[in-house]
Write a structure and sequence with these properties.
This protein has eleven helices and ten strands. With 306 residues, the protein is an alpha/beta fold. The strands form two sheets. The chain has a six-stranded mixed beta sheet with strand order 6-5-7-10-9-8, sandwiched between helices. It is elongated. The chain starts with 9 loop residues before the first strand and ends with a helix.
C-alpha cells in the first residue's frame, strides 16, 4: 500500500457511471417491477452501496475509507439502463474506486437478475466522470513569485556546536514547491536579535514568507513567539492551530509547542518547532493551502491601490 499518513483530510467526492445494454422488453419489466427475481433497481442499489463500503476488501491497494455518503441512482432508456454512483468522505485519499465499485456491483446484480430473461446483456462504459478533493483542489495560481527567508533560532547551532537540519528541511521543501529562498540565517536565542532580523526581512527586504525554526518550547530561552508577537500586525491563529493539530495526531508532545503566525505589511511570518520531524510535519500540514494566503494578500494589495 501507499503510505498516506502524511496526508491531511479533505472532503472527497467522486461520481461514476456505467451501462447495461439489453432488450426493450427487459427494460419494461424492470420498470414495471415484473422481473421474477424481484425489484431489480432496489436490489441493485443495495448491492452497490454494500460493495462500495467493502472496496478495500476486494481492491488490494485501496485504503479503508470511512465513507460518509453513497448514492446509487438509475436512468432507464428504451434498451439500456444507466447506473450512477456518488460517494463522499472526509479522508486522506480519494473515493473514485468506491464509486466505480458501487456502479460495477450494481450492474453485476442487474446482470444476474436479468439473465434468465435474455442472453442480450452487455455491461459497458464504466468510468469516473467527476472527482474532487485532495491537494490538487487547493493550489493557487499566484500573480507573482514568492520569495522566502529561513531563520534558524538556536544558541548551539549559532555557536557551530550543532549541525542545522531543520532549516535545511524547510529550504528544500520550499524549493520543491517553487518558492525561492533568498535568505537563510542562523540566530541565537536572543529576542531582540530575532525581532530586529524579522523587521529587516519584512520592512526592508519585502520578503513575502518568513519561516523560523526553534525557540518555540517551554525553556527560559525559548523566545521566538514573543519576538514574533512584537513584530506582526495581525496574528493568524488558524495556521498555528493547524500545525499543532497535525502534530498532535502524531505525537502528544506537539501540544507543548508555542509557535504563532501572523502578517506584517505583505509578509507572512510563521514559527515552526525546532525538531526536524516537527518541521517536516508542520510543512505537510500547511501546504498547499498556505499559498492561498498570498492570493488573498495580493488581491487586497491590488484593491488598496485604487
Amino acid at each position: 500500500m501507499i503510505d498516506v499518513s502524511s496526508k491531511f483530510n479533505t472532503l472527497r467526492y467522486a461520481k461514476a457511471e456505467g451501462w447495461i445494454l439489453t432488450d426493450s422488453e427487459v427494460v419494461e419489466k424492470v420498470k414495471n417491477k415484473t422481473v421474477p427475481k424481484g425489484d431489480v433497481l432496489e436490489i441493485s442499489r443495495a448491492a452497490g452501496i454494500s460493495a462500495a463500503k467493502k472496496t478495500s476488501e476486494i481492491i488490494v491497494f485501496c485504503h479503508p475509507v470511512p465513507v460518509d455518503w453513497i448514492s446509487v441512482t438509475f436512468e432507464l432508456f428504451e434498451d439500456k439502463i444507466k447506473v450512477i454512483s456518488e460517494v463522499k468522505a472526509v479522508w486522506k485519499t480519494g473515493v473514485e474506486m468506491e464509486a466505480i465499485t458501487a456502479v460495477s456491483s450494481s450492474l453485476l446484480n442487474m446482470y444476474d437478475m436479468l439473465k434468465p430473461l435474455t442472453n442480450n446483456l452487455v455491461i459497458t462504459n464504466i468510468k469516473v466522470v467527476e472527482k474532487k478533493g485532495g491537494k490538487s483542489d487547493f493550489k493557487d495560481e499566484l500573480s507573482k513569485k514568492i520569495n522566502a527567508a529561513v531563520l534558524v533560532i538556536s544558541d548551539s547551532t549559532y555557536k557551530k556546536g550543532r549541525e542545522d537540519k531543520s532549516g535545511k528541511i524547510i529550504e528544500e521543501f520550499l524549493t520543491n514547491n517553487s518558492i525561492t529562498v533568498k535568505f537563510y540565517e542562523v540566530l541565537p536565542d536572543d529576542k531582540e536579535k530575532i525581532k530586529a532580523k524579522l523587521l529587516v526581512l519584512c520592512d526592508k527586504e519585502k520578503i513575502e514568507l518568513v519561516f523560523t525554526t526553534g525557540g518555540t518550547g517551554l525553556g527560559p530561552k525559548d523566545l521566538t513567539p514573543e519576538a514574533t508577537t512584537e513584530v506582526v500586525e495581525k496574528q493568524i491563529p488558524g495556521i498555528s492551530e493547524a500545525i499543532r493539530k497535525y502534530g498532535k495526531d502524531r505525537t502528544p508532545y506537539a501540544m507543548l509547542s508555542r509557535e504563532i503566525a501572523g502578517i506584517r505589511n505583505q509578509s507572512l511570518i510563521i514559527n515552526l518547532p525546532g525538531s526536524s520531524r516537527g518541521v517536516k510535519e508542520s510543512l505537510q500540514a500547511l501546504f498547499p493551502g498556505l499559498l492561498h494566503a498570498f492570493s488573498v494578500m495580493q488581491a487586497a494589495g491590488h484593491d488598496n491601490s485604487f
